[in-house]
Structures are given as structure tokens and as C-alpha cells.
Specification:
The protein is an alpha/beta fold. The chain is 62% helix and 9% strand. The chain is flat, with a radius of gyration of 24 Å.
Length: 311
């Protein structure tokens, strides 16, 4: 039997992997037939020998293959012998951390022949519901304002969100988390490269902006997360620009916008590089691209290129 876990939300996919391992250990007490292979440099024969070896105990094996997507030789040999593995009584679990091409032959086989689960980054109400569910484990609630600000600060990085929730819950000790608590304890996730990207856009330096985005993708950052960060920054710029056009002072804008002082300070140096009309057009473009991604009309990485290239 084949199980396939994949997607750019590595927190939830890793949690699912651990749940499967724990469930296996509860049933198969010896633990001797739980095998793990690093797929990036895995020799196909080693994997084949493990599958074909006879167990000392009358129990199924759980064989975990992590990140074989880049191992071209393994993939070719596995697909050539795929029927033998698909019909196996043992559990063969493929775990891919990060994006996987839907046109890849191994991807198509795993989706068709096994039980698969995709973990895409959470957003909107789904992300908020996930946070609320996690907080139930601490017997702590959170106000809507605090929840919105927490997500503004962290984005949909569940690894970081989990750490921040633990910190906030321990600080409040079964009391409701309020906006002031988030602003006191959580540092905004404002990456320098995102500001540099926006500045490059403002200066019409698309080549630099695209290079910065490419560097993020090369590091494994989610395209959806990068787009959400760009959207977050341009929304802030639009708010600030609108208020400056109405001749409000810096301190008044800080109070009225409810932005974190750090966010306002970083955005202030960029806001004069755009007209209000330019910011409205850019924000509308980001909205349209985001909608196209969510409705499956465009690939997220291509969408990022289009967003930057159209500015």
C-alpha cells in the first residue's frame, strides 16, 4: 500500500507523518520494521532489498521515503517496477516537503495508485480556525482583533505561529489573548527582501524585483506566502498613502491605521514613491492574481512573475 503526503505546508504534512508513525508504533510494538530513507541520495536497490526482505516478526513494514522528487535515477527505476510496490502488503510512504510538479510521472503514479493528501498553505478563515483549534489545547481564547494582528505579523507560517501561540498561551495562563498581548510579545514577520522587492518595483527595476523573488523561491519559500506578504505590504502602503493625501500627521496615521510602529516606519520611506492611483491599480492587480490562483487558473510561481512584470 502506498501513502503520499505532499505540499508546501510542511508543518501540517510533518504532523500527519508523525501521526502515522505513532499509530504504526502502537500496533507494531517492536519498531524493527519501521524504516526511513533520505530519498535525495537513495539507491533504488537498497530500497528494493528492504521491501523484499522477510521480517522476523509477523507485522507489516512502514517504509518512509522522504524527498525522492529530485532523485531522477530512483524515480525511473521505481516507476519501471511500480506495480510490485503498489500491490505490496507493506506501507510505503512517500513524503515530499514543498512543491511538487503535477506533470511529474512519479507524482501522477502516486496520486493514482495510493492514498494521497495535499497540504496547501492555509489562508483566510481556514487559517483563523486552525489557530482557534490549536489554542483549545491550551484552554485559551483569542479576541478577533488579536487574531487578525497575529496573522498579520506571522503570515501563514505554521511553524512560527505554533511557537507564538505557545508563548502567548503561557503568558495569559487560560485568559483571553488580547490585541495588546500580541503587540507586546510577537515581532512582525517583515522580511527585508520584501521591502527591497517593493522598492525595486517603485524604481521600475523589475529585474532586481524578480531576482529577489527568485531567491525566496530558491530557499523554499511558498509562492502563496510571498504573494500574501506583497499583498500585505501594498495594502499598508495604500492605507498610509490615503491618509497622507488627507494631510494627517505621522502620529495620527499610526493611531488611525492601527499598524505596528515598525511596519509604519518601514513603509513610510516607500509610500512617496507611488501615487495613490498607482497603489490602487497594483493592489487590484494582486487581488486579481490571488483570485486566479485560488480558482486554479494560474500556477502560483507564474503568478508571482506576472505580478512583478506588470508593475
Amino acid at each position: 500500500m502506498i501513502i503520499f503526503l505532499y505540499g508546501s505546508d510542511t508543518y501540517r504534512s510533518r504532523r500527519k507523518l508523525n501521526e502515522i508513525i505513532e499509530q504504526y508504533r502502537k500496533i507494531h510494538k517492536s519498531g524493527l520494521n519501521l524504516k526511513y530513507f533520505n530519498g535525495e541520495n537513495l539507491n533504488f536497490q537498497d530500497f528494493k532489498d528492504e521491501v523484499q526482505s522477510v521480517s522476523m516478526f509477523a507485522e507489516k513494514k512502514l517504509i518512509i521515503l522522504e524527498n525522492v522528487n529530485k532523485n531522477k535515477i530512483f524515480k525511473e527505476k521505481f516507476l519501471a517496477n511500480s506495480k510490485n510496490f503498489a500491490d505490496s502488503d507493506d506501507l510505503i510512504l512517500f513524503y515530499e516537503a514543498g512543491g511538487t510538479s503535477t506533470n511529474d510521472s512519479l507524482f501522477k503514479f502516486l496520486r493514482k495508485s495510493g492514498q494521497s493528501q495535499e497540504f496547501q498553505p492555509l489562508a483566510g478563515q481556514r487559517l483563523k480556525n486552525w489557530v482557534k483549534k490549536e489554542l483549545k489545547n491550551y484552554k485559551v481564547n483569542i479576541s478577533p482583533e488579536a487574531l487578525d494582528q497575529l496573522i498579520n505579523y506571522t503570515g501563514n507560517n505554521l511553524w512560527r505561529l505554533t511557537n507564538e501561540l505557545s508563548k502567548l498561551a503561557n503568558f495569559k495562563r487560560q485568559q483571553k489573548i488580547e490585541l495588546d498581548d500580541v503587540e507586546l510579545l510577537v515581532k512582525p514577520e517583515i522580511e527585508t527582501d520584501i521591502f527591497e522587492t517593493i522598492e525595486a518595483v517603485a524604481l521600475k527595476n523589475r529585474k532586481k524585483a524578480l531576482l529577489l523573488i527568485y531567491n525566496h523561491l530558491k530557499k523554499g519559500d511558498s509562492p502563496l506566502y510571498l504573494l500574501s506578504m506583497i499583498n500585505f505590504q501594498f495594502r499598508n502602503l495604500l492605507i498610509i498613502k490615503d491618509l497622507t493625501e488627507k494631510n494627517y500627521s505621522y502620529n495620527s496615521i499610526l493611531k488611525m491605521s492601527k499598524l505596528h510602529p515598525f511596519v509604519l516606519k518601514k513603509s513610510w520611506s516607500l509610500v512617496n514613491k507611488f501615487t495613490l492611483l498607482e497603489l490602487k491599480k497594483i493592489y487590484q492587480k494582486i487581488f486579481q492574481v490571488d483570485l486566479a490562483i485560488k480558482t486554479g487558473k494560474i500556477n502560483p510561481e507564474i503568478a508571482l512573475d506576472l505580478v512583478i512584470s506588470d508593475f
